[in-house]
Amino acid sequence: MHAFDYATPESVADAVVMLSDQGKNACVLAGGTDLIVQLRENRRRTDLVVDVKRIAELNALSYDAATGVTIGAAVPCYRIYGDAEIAAAYPGLMDAARLVGGTGIQGRASLGGNLCNASPAGDTIPPMIVLSGEAEIAGPNGTRKVAVEDFCTAPGRTVLEVGEFLVSLHFPAPVPNSGAFYRRFIPRNEMDIAVVGVGASVVLSEDRSSFVSARIAVGAVAPTPLFVREAGDALAGQPVSDESIQRAADLARDAARPISDMRGTAEYRKHLTSVLTRRVVEGAVQRAKE
Amino acid sequence: MSKKVHVQTTINGEAVDFLCEPRNSLLEVLRDDLDLTGAKEGCNNGNCGACNVIMDGRLVNSCCVLGVEADGCEITTIEGIGSAANLHPLQQKFLEHAALQCGICTPGFIVSAKALLDENPNPSEDEVRYWLAGNLCRCTGYDKIVRAVLDARNGA
């Protein structure tokens, strides 16, 4: 591994200064489960690793039934699903937080890191998109907010500019009669990279017979995790039925632009996108009824 | 080469100071500098769990932790879990169930299983298998390992 310096700023402002001073030669360390491996394998090179775990905002985890949840960008997965109130309010997010790597990875890996790593197959990103997640970014010009669906721009690339870093993620409070679900397809039982992953959130009418609104996002079928707005919109106002859900699944499949690789062919992935979308919307509907 | 950093930790209950470069992983520090060679280097990329240690109460892959990040932390390695004269119940059960063949993955499995039993003294088989999903064994096929952990539970 190429040599680098290591810094542990204790405030957002200090981190911004360090990152700005070093420009492209600095990188941000949270759980390290992607970054340390990438540095070791010379897929990334850096002169300065800025460990953000001593900054209070990066470790914040707070839930309010009225305003929602704020999750510091460095909060590891185990803390998120270990919080009974948050786990109960956001089961769709827990689906993903519980399957990022094994237990040892979940002791360190964060949702913020998963987002910044910007893998097309990042498991937590589709559920963060469908839950209308918002990323708070700090930088030399102050803070700005970006919707999670707009955060990743290409494999391994994000909207973060030089000197900027992700501070926290915010998700609105769940509304009545709503539910969310994430599922991925992998050939093993555990510990694998998604061939396809699909997240869905739905809001049902009071009698739960029709969709008020829905959001659907797919992973591993495009250069970035993909928000398929038209698939969710197609459900709005429709009865909860096999036909309406299949229509949304068809739209998600049509939006998928997968490649063929060792995990599956493009044709297989498109088929899986349709099947998974149907099952995931059904799963979200089930949760909305619970 | 960047300057070495002074790191203060507690390892297996004893205060341990060391110097390391920021690029050295905790696994490298343990094995190469502190002579704690129980944690193994398997994949060196977070997949196999052979390097598992417990850091401030959480199971981590020490290949994916920088040595400098351990400053102020409390670490338990396999060396702190039992000794030849005084085996931990998990170690005893691994022997009784012959839950190992080549043995490279065994320290990681024992550390990982200890972290599980510390948090959940009476896990179901599903919970054991799910928890240990990040520990790979290419010899045993896992059944004996899972049985050994189940047999080491408080209620067993």
Task: Describe the protein's architecture and organization.
The complex is a heterodimer of chains A (290) and B (156). Chain A has helices at 12-22, 35-40, 77-81, 84-89, 91-97, 103-106, 111-117, 125-130, 229-233, 242-255, 266-289, and strands at 5-7, 26-29, 48-51, 61-64, 68-72, 134-139, 142-147, 152-154, 157-158, 165-171, 178-185, 196-204, 211-219, 226-227. Chain A has 290 residues and is α+β, with helices and mostly antiparallel strands. Chain A has three domains: 5-51, 2-Layer Sandwich (Uridine Diphospho-n-acetylenolpyruvylglucosamine Reductase, domain 2); 56-171, Uridine Diphospho-n-acetylenolpyruvylglucosamine Reductase, domain 3, CATH 3.30.465.10; 178-289, Enolase-like, domain 1 (2-Layer Sandwich), CATH 3.30.390. Chain A is globular and about 55 Å long. The model of chain A has no long low-confidence stretch (mean pLDDT 97). Chain B is built from five helices and five strands; from the N terminus they run ββαβββαααα. Chain B has a five-stranded mixed β-sheet with strand order 2-1-5-3-4, with helices on both faces. In chain B, α2 packs across α5 (143-151). Chain B starts with a strand and ends in a 5-residue tail after the last helix. The model of chain B has no long low-confidence stretch (mean pLDDT 95). The chains are: A alpha+beta (290), B alpha+beta (156). Chain A binds chain B through residues 1-6, 29, 31-33, 36-37, 39-41, 49, 51, 53, 76, 78, 101-105, 107-108, 189-191, and chain B through 1-3, 5, 21-23, 25, 44-47, 49, 52, 55, 58-61, 63-66, 68-69, 112, 115-116, 130-135.
